[in-house]
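Let us work through a complete example step by step.
Step 1: write down the sequence.
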Amino acid sequence: MTAPLTPYTFRAIEARDLPALALLWHEAWRAGHLAFAAPELVDARTPELFLNRLKPFAGHGLVALGHDGEPDGFAYWDGAELDQFHLGQRARGTGLAGALMHRAEEAMAGEGITSAHLFCAEGNARAHRFYEKAGWRDQGVEATKVSDGLGGWLPAACHRFTKELARR
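Step 2: predict the structure and record it as tokens.
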């Protein structure tokens, strides 16, 4: 499969990207979760929390830079799990999501990963539709826990998606 054409530049996430990615992640998380997330989780998900969570991502994952050089999306994986995949508001509907997913899947396959998975919060309908369109298979809902950002955990229900990646 050929990568979709986009006006974006893709590269590994760098430390200098982290402040902008924290704001992007905060906005994207709220757009996808605000309607159903527990109030205490919404309160805990601050830009500062996302910045702290992003620190280990530098040097790995992918950032998509728009024509102005600013981040418009990012993908991060931890082993076979596509752990984070987010687009900023201005990039939604532009085709970036498909291109970024394609690049992330290629990079994961390049690391020898042949079977990948990701989790999508139950209620995040837009992300759910995108993952299905991108060829990921919904394996059903799993009860799990998510960090409250304060050292505790909150119950959550997430769809587990899987995808076999092309061998390289």
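Step 3: interpret the result. DSSP finds five helices and seven strands in the chain.
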